[in-house]
């Protein structure tokens, strides 16, 4: 069993996230990809705008219909800062024999040396860094990799969407169409998320 794990704030989830997950599923022949919304990201200055339940619900709407995509709510339920190493250790213990792949944008790979126990992260999972378009990320020297196969690179088409931009657009009353699935747009309108008066 090859299990892909995709952590993020997903505030909100968008098509860049979905395409990254799908490219990794294809390229690495993953049996399942789990989206893992973080309670809060220890490396981000500001906390998420939408609460954990809302971000999980948006992710659930976004993956609807994909038989191999799942949302795992454990980090939101656990609360506090979400450390990948804790989540990976739990999932490894629950899935003996599964091969774990931890998916991230290549931009996030540069921060990996600053994570809690980065070497342990690399022992628990193969880190998969996804290059967008012409990006050519390399393994950060600070990781001191003994075994180069602990990091793999996958390419995807450039897709410049960001959750920050979606929040800004929602706040300005601009269109979100084709940036995130229609069900996510309907949800965030319904909940009045990211409106200008909520400080998005
Ligand atoms: P924000 O704009 O709020 O910082 P974000 O859009 O970068 O959010 P995150 O939830 O922080 O989204 O990102 C989760 C993961 O998705 C990270 O590994 C990040 O590199 C990756 N990612 C974000 N946007 C894209 C995109 N457009 N294409 C591919 N990967 C992306």
TrEMBL record:
The record's annotation in Pfam families points to:
CTP_transf_like
Which keywords does UniProt give here?
Answer: ATP-binding, NAD, Nucleotide-binding, Nucleotidyltransferase, Pyridine nucleotide biosynthesis, Transferase
Q: For the Cytidyltransferase-like domain, which residue ranges apply?
A: 5-169
One GO molecular function term of this record is: nicotinate-nucleotide adenylyltransferase activity
Name the catalysed reactions: nicotinate beta-D-ribonucleotide + ATP + H(+) = deamido-NAD(+) + diphosphate
- Which top EC class is named for this enzyme in its record? transferase
Q: In which pathway does it act?
A: Cofactor biosynthesis; NAD(+) biosynthesis; deamido-NAD(+) from nicotinate D-ribonucleotide: step 1/1
The record ties this protein, via InterPro entries, to: Cyt_trans-like, NadD/NMNAT, Rossmann-like_a/b/a_fold
Assigned EC number: 2.7.7.18
What the record says about family reads: Belongs to the NadD family.
Q: Which NCBIfam families match?
A: cyt_tran_rel, nicotinate (nicotinamide) nucleotide adenylyltransferase, PRK00071.1-3
Function recorded in the entry = Catalyzes the reversible adenylation of nicotinate mononucleotide (NaMN) to nicotinic acid adenine dinucleotide (NaAD).
Give the protein name, as stated in the record.
Probable nicotinate-nucleotide adenylyltransferase
Query: What gene is this protein a product of?
Result: nadD
């Amino acid at each position: 069993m090859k299990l892909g794990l995709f952590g993020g704030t997903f505030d909100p989830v968008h098509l860049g996230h979905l395409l990254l997950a799908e490219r990794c599923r294809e390229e690495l022949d993953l049996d399942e990809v789990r989206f893992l919304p973080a309670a809060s990201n220890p490396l981000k200055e500001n906390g998420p705008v939408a609460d954990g339940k809302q971000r999980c619900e948006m992710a659930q709407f976004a993956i609807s219909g994909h038989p191999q995509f799942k949302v795992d709510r454990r980090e939101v339920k656990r609360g506090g800062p979400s450390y990948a190493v804790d989540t990976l250790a739990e999932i490894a213990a629950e899935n003996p024999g599964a091969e774990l792949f931890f998916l991230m944008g290549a931009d996030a790979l540069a921060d990996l040396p600053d994570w809690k126990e980065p070497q342990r992260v690399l022992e628990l999972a193969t880190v998969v860094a996804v290059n967008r378009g012409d990006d050519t990320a390399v393994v950060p020297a600070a990781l001191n990799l003994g075994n180069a196969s602990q990091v793999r690179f996958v390419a995807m088409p450039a897709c410049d969407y960001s959750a920050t931009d979606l929040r800004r657009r929602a706040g300005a009353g601009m269109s979100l169409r084709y940036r995130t699935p229609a069900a996510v747009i309907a949800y965030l309108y319904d909940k009045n998320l990211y409106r200008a008066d909520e400080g998005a």
